[in-house]
Input
Amino acid sequence: MAQSILHKAQTRGFANHGWLKSYHTFSFANYYNPARMNFGVLRVLNDDHVAAGRGFGTHPHDNMEIISIPLEGDLEHKDSMNNVAVIQHGDIQVMSAGTGVYHSEYNRNKDQDTKFLQIWMFPNKKNVTPRYDQMAMNLEDRHNKLQQILSPDPSDAGVWVHQDAWFHIGTFDEGVNTHYQIKKEGNGVYAFVLKGSFSLDGQPLETRDGYGIWNTEGFELKALSPDAEILLMDVPMEI
Output
């Protein structure tokens, strides 16, 4: 029988650093909730707003798959692998921290905040060689359907990660239905509403609500508002 958990937007942790406003779906930094440590291998889901001209200074990571999804504005990335890149809405960025990497992220815009999702997953291989990748996705390919933006397979659509995980984003007109089939036995899906409202197997979801579902083969998704947008993260439930 399917199991599920609902995290309403207003129940998330929140940190206001002035230049950074960050909402935490799962425990992170000074926000600690033992009931909200992870969803399977999904460890961090931060909804970050970075002020113009500000950003995260150089800092280390290891043995984590780190995914950034820009929602508004641009974000400049620099790392110890000599990568310098700018990501913007429609892009997806992945960094396999592996044996260790340093990086920084800055909003170089002088007149616009940058909003992006910072997502961490536990990898299925430890101490891999660090790697970086980013890809610009065609936004038209997510209209009234789910566009794959991440998978375990380097030859498949989107970026790839060291984990049996698949991410999709869809933007739907009001009333459009779609069925999602979970990609691998033992996986669950954490749905995160980026904009508008949805019904997921009958559960109403509003903007920035999170909903995890597992022990099921799939579910029905229906947009309840115009231009509704959702991110689905299909991940192993066993760490």
About this structure: The domain at 12-136 is CATH 2.60.120.10 (Jelly Rolls). The chain has two domains: 12-136, 139-236. The first strand starts at residue 3 and ends at 7. The radius of gyration is 17 Å.
